[in-house]
Here is the input.
Amino acid sequence: MDIELNGIDGFAPPPFKIKSVEAIRLISREERERKINENGMNLFLLSSKDVYIDMLTDSGTSAMSDQQWAGIMTGDESYAGSGSFDHLASAVSDIMGFSYTLPAHQGRGAEQTFDKVLIKEGQIVPGNMHFDTTRAHIENVNGRAVDCVIDEAFDAGCELPFKGNIDIGKLEALVKKDPSRIAYILITATCNNGGGQPVSIENMRQTREISSKYKVPLFLDAARYAENAFFIKKREPGYADKRLREIAREMMSYMDGCIMSAKKDALVNIGGFIALNDKELYNRLAPVNVLMEGFPTYGGMSGRDMEAMAIGLYEGIDERYLAHRIGQVEYLAAKLDEAGVPLMKPFGGHAVYINGKEFMSHIPCENFPSQALCVECYLEGGIRGVEIGALLAGRDPDTGESICPKLDMMRLAAPRRVYMREHMDYVAEVVKSVFKRRNEIRGLDFEYESPIMRHFLSRLKWVEG
Ligand code: F0G
Here is the structure.
């Protein structure tokens, strides 16, 4: 057995050693209470120095390798014709097989350019489950984002290997009605809002069939494409002996292109891109990208960032790295599962999703059970997770009523190559002790409700009682 890949007790040791460290500190319980009260029970408003283990996001929080830092020194900062852009475009073409790359400052920068060109007013973008900024950009150009994920995706405990899959029947019914109303189809892999669940190759192939049949383009939101490829290797029949690079190539072969937030699987702190093969579409996107992001050979990034990204793309699809990374998330999830903490299953790729609705079953949806859980984990041990539930869901634009989402969760996202097994042990202990006293925990209410994307800036207070 290959210990590097399979580990001991299923946990692969990190395929790296540490060259530089950053100190972290746990402030006292009294200080944590003061900080969270001062900041309206909103973990986004906390200063990071007051957080001990930060699992708010896996986006832009990776530790770069010595090779990437070396790339930072050799970055070519030329406005036009930067050699670092050539390195980036060559990495994208080598790994993903796309001939044209348009850089952007991050995923949402790429989304903005892309949607401005691809969506006409009133057009629809069906997908499995769109990420928040993806949806917001589609709506910003008066398009409609429609989720067509399989129904099981909303059943937190249901153990299907590919819970990020598109429901092909739902998709075809929507597309067939009027193909001219479909701007493009978007698969998000892995599916962040659905618990980091992967999409199978078979599902991508079937989606391609629909896309070809109705002549509607198909794109991938590739933020976590490498983690998705790893799950395909582990879970999909016929893929166990394939190399991850081959799997990634096959995934991309069904796509007309991809949009990528490189802050995840490309192991950089900032950056993104659009990649595709259609020259005519590239020629329509490039001038818009000049306006929104920058000249086509830098697009909102510095040369050094593109250099680090070119290197990070290769490191991010390395199997030993992914075995460790996904193994680390699984390690934390398994510890919580053992203690009876209700979790989204199967365990996702980049984060552990705790089912806040069930964990805090005594707190009604309108009192934000998962947010109360996030606040308590901070108070208990200085951990910062993020609520993906009723607070994030906001209000129905038609009725003005707060939405009660089917999934109400706390996400503990693991930054890449940052924390060690001991940190995961600590996080598990903190969550477990909150779980033991869950029945004493109250819900939350608004002190101030921010009008848009309310989870970022709202202030909350404990419900009286
Ligand atoms: N697509 C997916 C699937 C994402 O998860 C994100 C960001 C984006 C697009 C947007 O990319 O941040 O570079 O502009 N997700 C982060 C998160 C913010 O915490 O999950 P971005």
